[in-house]
């Protein structure tokens, strides 16, 4: 090849390399190019930030020294992956969680570039900070612990009372049997509610909540909730029900609405204080008739900086009770109906007021099933 032809090829290769380098800076993840002699050729800014080493210091270093990544067993990642690089059919590896010398965890993928005969000549590495992944895993572990704790108490009660009844049925008076059976039923319903919550969480995240609208008598629904809590030991005068005249007829999924109100009232009783008010008023949503359902208490309220966080999945705000799913479910199930949720709370005064705005809906929705997409 003529000398000027060679220079043209070199210039083209250099131009392509510069273009690839510029493009890598636009990536949200780290990018590192490794040459055939196992030295680092290029590091984008994001990779340098993840590794905690300036890009100009990493460039030219041996990859095993510059990255010094270890797997969860303490093995040197680059040395352990050497057999795969030598294997001519190997194209790289999928995402692995590795640890940097500074104790930081990263997620790394590798792509091996080969000559036509299969020999290795470069590697392209993708890095991502693993902090968010580990945070999500910790949240999941905490949820499992919380759910296990929430299930332990009612299951222990169910097995204890049923065991006593089976062994000593004739020794108990009828009134005692009735109390024990009612307790078993309440605890079984508690377990069922928690399982339903977990299933609804997965449906909300998959945006596959099925809504089957039915005609709702809100006054009767409110009264049923109050009656249940009074039977569980709450004072009747702690509740106030208000359903205004001229309320448009509400069509909603009865089971989903039950879950919404259960979580709102339970939260008001658990975290609030004073009287709990259940109120329904006429409203409009995007110019169409709607019903505003309000559940409020007279507690200390929620700090402004937490008022959006309370709708996050698993958020407990320092509380050691509950699964942290309540308001996440309220928002998800409300949005599945085409409605919206608003939180009005003044920290230190005024209590907490959660408002659920649901479209009233025409009666022809009765026969239709609607899936939140």
Topology at a glance:
Elements: H1 3-24, E1 30-35, E2 40-43, H2 45-51, H3 55-58, H4 63-66, H5 77-80, H6 82-86, E3 92-99, E4 105-114, E5 120-129, H7 131-168, H8 174-205, E6 210-211, E7 214-216, H9 218-231, E8 239-243, E9 250-252, H10 254-271, E10 276-285, E11 288-296, H11 326-336, E12 340-345, E13 352-359, E14 370-371
Parallel strand pairs: 8-10
Antiparallel strand pairs: 1-2, 1-5, 3-4, 4-5, 6-14, 7-9, 10-11, 11-13, 12-13
Helix pairs in contact: 7-8, 8-11, 10-11
CATH superfamily of the largest domain: Histidine kinase-like ATPase, C-terminal domain
Number of helices: 11
CATH architecture of the largest domain: 2-Layer Sandwich
Structural domain tally: 3
Give the end-to-end Cα distance, rounded to a whole number of Å: 61 Å
Low-confidence segments, given as residue ranges, are none
Number of strands: 14
Can you tag this structure with a few keywords?
373 residues, 3 domains, Beta-Lactamase, 14 strands, 43% helix, alpha+beta, elongated, five-stranded mixed sheet, Helix Hairpins, Heat Shock Protein 90, five-stranded antiparallel sheet
């Amino acid at each position: 090849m003529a000398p000027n032809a060679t220079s043209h090829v070199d210039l083209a290769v250099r131009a392509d390399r510069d273009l690839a380098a510029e493009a890598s800076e636009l990536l949200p993840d780290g990018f590192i190019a490794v040459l055939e002699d196992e030295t680092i050729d290029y590091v984008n800014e994001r990779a340098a930030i993840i590794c905690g080493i300036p890009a100009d210091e990493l460039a030219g270093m041996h990859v095993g020294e510059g990255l010094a990544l270890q797997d969860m067993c303490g093995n040197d990642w680059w040395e352990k992956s050497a057999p795969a690089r030598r294997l001519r059919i190997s194209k790289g590896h999928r995402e692995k969680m590795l640890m940097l010398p500074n104790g930081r965890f990263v997620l790394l993928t590798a792509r091996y570039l080969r000559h036509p005969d299969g020999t290795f000549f470069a590697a392209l590495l993708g890095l991502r900070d693993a902090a968010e992944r580990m945070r999500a895993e910790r949240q999941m572990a905490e949820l499992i612990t919380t759910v296990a704790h929430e299930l332990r108490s009612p299951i222990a009660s169910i097995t204890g009372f049923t065991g006593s009844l089976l062994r000593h049925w004739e020794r108990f008076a009828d009134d005692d049997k009735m109390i024990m059976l009612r307790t078993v039923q309440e605890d079984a319903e508690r377990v069922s509610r928690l399982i339903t919550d977990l299933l609804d969480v997965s449906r909300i995240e998959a945006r596959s909540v099925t809504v089957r609208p039915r005609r709702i008598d809100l006054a009767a629904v409110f009264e049923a909730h109050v009656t249940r809590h009074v039977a569980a030991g709450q004072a009747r005068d702690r509740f106030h029900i208000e359903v205004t005249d001229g309320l448009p007829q509400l069509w909603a999924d009865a089971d989903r609405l039950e879950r919404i109100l259960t979580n709102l009232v339970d939260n008001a009783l658990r975290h609030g204080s004073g009287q709990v008010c259940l109120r329904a008023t006429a409203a409009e949503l995007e110019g169409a008739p709607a019903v505003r359902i309000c559940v409020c208490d007279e507690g200390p309220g929620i700090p402004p900086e937490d008022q959006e966080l309370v709708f996050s999945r698993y958020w407990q705000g320092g509380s050691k009770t509950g699964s942290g799913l309540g308001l996440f479910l309220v928002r998800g199930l409300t949005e599945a109906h085409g409605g919206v949720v608003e939180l009005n709370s003044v920290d230190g005064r005024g209590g907490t007021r959660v408002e659920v705005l649901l479209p009233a809906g025409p009666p022809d929705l009765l026969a239709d099933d609607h899936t939140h997409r």
